[in-house]
From TrEMBL:
The chain crosses the membrane at residues 15-37, 43-62. It catalyses: ATP + protein L-histidine = ADP + protein N-phospho-L-histidine. Keywords: Kinase, Membrane, Phosphoprotein, Transferase, Transmembrane, Transmembrane helix, Two-component regulatory system. InterPro entries: 2C_sensor_his_kinase, HATPase_C_sf, HATPase_dom, His_kinase_dom, Sig_transdc_His_kin-like_C. This is histidine kinase. SUPFAM superfamilies: ATPase domain of HSP90 chaperone/DNA topoisomerase II/histidine kinase. One of its GO terms (biological process) is phosphorelay signal transduction system. Residues 130-338 form the Histidine kinase domain. It comes from Parvibacter caecicola. Gene3D superfamilies: Histidine kinase-like ATPase, C-terminal domain. The keyword Transmembrane applies. It comes from the Bacteria.
Length: 338
């Protein structure tokens, strides 16, 4: 669509009728002369006819220009809304009415499709939540049974059950993070308590892999976040560190640009594991991307870091990664102060 509906555009769209009008004026001129009208009379007739034609075309142009200008303004200001016709008045000229009716029909179809997608999304989420609920009961029973086992297989069974628990939780948080409704509650959280709880929940894996976690967060540091979602994010980072060769994981915080509009609390999760190949770093937050480490280790889904990025974005938390292969990885979580 043109940025401006100019008179030149209008005349180009009406070239046939304009050409016919000019031919009519020429015929009027010669017909009046054939009928014996003086040159002055013919000039007056032609001038009057031309004036009336110009007035008609001018009025038509102004009506159309108002409609298209309104339509262009609506397209620039609607910001993704499907209710375009609510921003535009139905025009009076025939072509505009046809375009307006077509626009209304397209909107109705779009709204119906959006409603269908919303229903399907809600149905999918409800199914996943039901599946997780039904899965957690036999999983919890299996974990209790595993505690009563003896021998070398006990730890392996417990580890595999923990891994299954993590995958079940990942499926639940993925379903919730893609929902069109907010399933999180942002509130003030003591950061050190959340970090310690995340370490506690992943203690078995950290111990088995020989990982020494350190929490270096002051007790008075408070961040704005949803506690279950933040625990999931930290759990994913701790699990990744343990699975990819880390022997030490340090969680530390600091204040960045305090007292300014850009002020935020930064939580750093640093490990001394394998590190991420340089060519993989820009893609680690992509859905399904496993990278060289994931392919060599096997069993990676490429969903953990993708979920971290998605959940952080939903909560307004900045997330960054810096890594050097063979030296370790740093994940930075930035919690805005306001």
């Amino acid at each position: 669509m043109e940025e401006k509906y100019t008179l030149a555009i209008f005349l180009r769209s009406r070239w046939a009728s304009v050409a016919c009008a000019l031919v009519a004026l020429v015929l009027l001129w010669f017909s009046a002369g054939f009928l014996g009208v003086s040159d002055d009379g013919r000039m007056m007739l032609a001038g009057l006819a031309g004036f009336l034609l110009a007035m008609g075309y001018g009025a038509d142009y102004l009506r159309q220009r108002a409609f298209y200008r309104q339509l262009l303004d609506a397209c620039r200001n609607m910001q993704g809304s499907s209710q375009l016709s609510a921003w535009v008045q139905e025009p009076e000229f025939p072509e505009g009415r046809i375009a307006f009716q077509l626009l209304e029909q397209m909107e109705s179809q779009a709204i119906a499709q959006i409603s269908q997608v919303q229903r399907q999304s809600q149905d999918y989420r409800s199914y996943i939540e039901l599946w997780v609920h039904e899965t957690k009961m036999p999983l919890a029973a299996a974990q209790l049974i595993a505690q009563r086992l003896q021998g070398a297989d006990k730890l392996e069974i417990a580890r595999q059950l923990d891994r299954l628990q993590g995958q079940v939780d990942q499926a639940l948080y993925y379903a919730r993070s893609t929902s069109l409704t907010n399933d999180y509650v942002i509130r003030s959280l003591p950061l050190v308590a959340v970090c310690r709880e995340a370490v506690k929940r992943n203690a078995r894996l950290l111990i088995e892999q020989g990982v020494a976690p350190q929490v270096k967060v002051d007790g008075d540091v408070v961040v704005q976040s949803d506690e279950p979602w933040l625990l999931f994010i930290l759990g994913q980072l701790l699990t990744n560190a343990a699975q990819y060769g880390a022997k030490t994981v340090v969680l530390s915080s600091k204040e960045v640009e305090p007292g300014t509009p850009r002020g935020h609390t930064r939580l750093e999760v640093r490990d001394d594991g394998w590190g991420i190949p340089a060519q993989d770093v820009p893609r680690v937050f992509e859905r399904g991307f496993t990278g060289g480490n994931g392919r060599s280790r096997g069993g990676a889904t490429g969903m953990g870091l993708y979920l971290i990025a998605m959940m952080a974005e939903r909560m307004g938390i900045g997330v960054q990664v810096a890594s050097e292969e063979g030296a370790g990885t740093r994940f930075l979580l930035d919690f805005p102060h306001s």
